[in-house]
Amino acid sequence: MSTNEHIDPERMRLNFADIVEKRFGFLLELGFVKTEALPTMVRYRKGDLELSIYLGRQSYEVGFEIGHANETYSMSEIIRATDPGTADQYRNAAATTATELATAVDRLAGLVTKYGERALRDDPAFFAGLSQQRKDWSETYALDVLAQQVRPKAEAAFREGRFREAAELYEKIHARLTPAELKKLDIARQRG
Q: What is the DSSP track for 95-133?
């Protein structure tokens, strides 16, 4: 066993796998089969679905993931599909004691029951929505990063009177422009 794979004896005493098996017993009723139980991870499978409930080796965060069609979705993504406001507030709980762990696993089981019902039923429309949500997030993130990179260049070009260049740069991030930047874009177009 490598150093990275070594499980701290204290973590072994937390009995993570036992707690998960008790709190997530409803998965067996839904037709899932436990395929692996380790000190920091318990996995279940049903058809093409694979579930992982884990205790982070470094972070001690208790989390849930569901694998479907070569994609893995986190608990926050599942929550976001039905309740974006709650998803914005969601964080994996960290647990370093048996009491904290039981509380965190109970909370997680409740969230899986509340928000993951369609995922656990392998609902194709739900997974299509998760895939689209991920694609939309990726595009939004890419545009945000582009705006952070382009905005200072556009501002400098405008300030220095290079209006054609400023207009071209502002156009690249049009969806992220502030009202003042939209006005600058109009001016740059007129003067460029």
A: --SHHHHHHHHHHHHHHHHHH-HHHHTT-HHHHHHHHHH
**Are the C-beta atoms of 52 and 61 separated by less than 8 Å?**
no
Report how far apart, in Å, the C-alpha atoms of 140 and of each of 56, 87, 130, 148, 177 are: 28, 17, 15, 12, 14
150-190: per-residue pLDDT in tens? 999 999 999 999 999 999 999 999 999 999 999 999 999 99
How many CB atoms within 10 Å of residue 14?
A: 21
Chain-centre distance for alpha carbon 82:
14
Closest among 16, 43, 6, 7 to 97, alpha carbons compared = 16
- Averaged over 46-53, what is the pLDDT? 96
pLDDT of the residue at 57: 85
69: which DSSP letter? Answer: T
pTM of the model as a whole: 0.77
* Percent over 70 (pLDDT), the chain: 94
Task: Specify whether the CB–CB gap between 169 and 153 falls below 8 A.
Answer: yes
